Amino acid sequence: MTGEASHRTAIITGASRGLGLVLARRLAEDGWNLIIDARGEDALESARAELSRITQVIAIPGDVADVGHRAAIAEAAREAGGVDALVNNASILGPSPQPNLLEYPLDVLEEVYRKNVISPLALIQALRTELKPQARIINVTSDAAVEPYAGWGGYGSSKAAFEQLSNILAAENPGLRVYRVDPGDMRTRMHQEAFPEEDISDRPHPEESVPGFLELLRGDLPSGRYTARALTTNASTTTRDS
Ligand SMILES: NC(=O)c1ccc[n+]([C@@H]2O[C@H](COP(=O)([O-])OP(=O)(O)OC[C@H]3O[C@@H](n4cnc5c(N)ncnc54)[C@H](OP(=O)(O)O)[C@@H]3O)[C@@H](O)[C@H]2O)c1
């Protein structure tokens, strides 16, 4: 893959920690150029400094919900000559612990939807002329989008909306590959926020989800819903659309 991918550029949102950073490391090793973001400037700079030792990386601090920040990402994509992949990974859980729906503050729910649904679509819109033919869009979802876990109504329903948005985007744009991907439980800050009282050290490291993402980025699988770890174990719960 090294060499073959040396000219490729990927945007990964939320790449200062967790899954986004681990995926960025792996793509950097494979020769991809990267455009990354996150809100926290120090952690993003630390990621940029690490990744720039192995590839070209542009780090743009900011919130995907901010229109000016999205325009800055689009400008960087233009200067890079377009992008081969967009990974909409940045996401928020909402309150920790998560409230049940009957008590869920609606202004907070709106914020969760803005960050998890509207903003990634807005980023895709901002990048529409920068996506190369056959570009891959990976929208990171969760099993909480489809399972009725009590307490997960805010985050889970935002991911459900994100999934259907991805599904329809794929139908409307057959030239693109639009993947909605469940990475599975991962030992990250978001997971700790979701289970604030629990020891989550038994959860898999995000590295265990990365091979599935590479499969989608390297291969030519049809648009659809994929479970990252199943992609490499064949215990697939994949739903393919085309
Ligand atoms: N962890 C799990 O068990 C699990 C399970 C299923 C699905 N997922 C999904 O996997 C993806 C990655 O989750 P993770 O566990 O790696 O989360 P994480 O450790 O909390 O990392 C999230 C990353 O996104 C950035 N971010 C959050 N909101 C942002 C915003 N509005 N604009 C720009 N950057 C933003 C964060 O940096 P800043 O906070 O500094 O912005 C951080 O770099 C998410 O889509 C999540 O929903 C996670």
Describe the structure.
There is one protein chain. 40% of the residues lie in helices and 18% in strands. β5 (131-140), α5 and β6 (177-182) form a beta-alpha-beta unit. It is an alpha/beta fold and 242 residues long. The protein has helices at residues 18-29, 41-51, 67-79, 106-126, 153-172, 189-194, 210-218, 228-233, and strands spanning 9-12, 33-38, 57-61, 83-88, 131-140, 177-182, 224-227, 239-240. The longest helix is centred in the middle third of the chain and has 21 residues, at 106-126. The mean pLDDT is 94. α4 runs parallel beside α5. The chain has an 8-stranded mixed β-sheet, with helices on both faces.
Short account of what is shown:
By secondary structure, the protein is an alpha/beta fold.
Number of helices: 8
Order of helices and strands: EHEHEHEHEHEHHEHE
Report the structural category: alpha/beta
State the end-to-end CA separation: 26 Å
Task: Write the SSE topology.
Layout: E1 9-12, H1 18-29, E2 33-38, H2 41-51, E3 57-61, H3 67-79, E4 83-88, H4 106-126, E5 131-140, H5 153-172, E6 177-182, H6 189-194, H7 210-218, E7 224-227, H8 228-233, E8 239-240
Parallel strand pairs: 1-2, 1-4, 2-3, 4-5, 5-6, 6-7
Antiparallel strand pairs: 7-8
Helix pairs in contact: 4-5
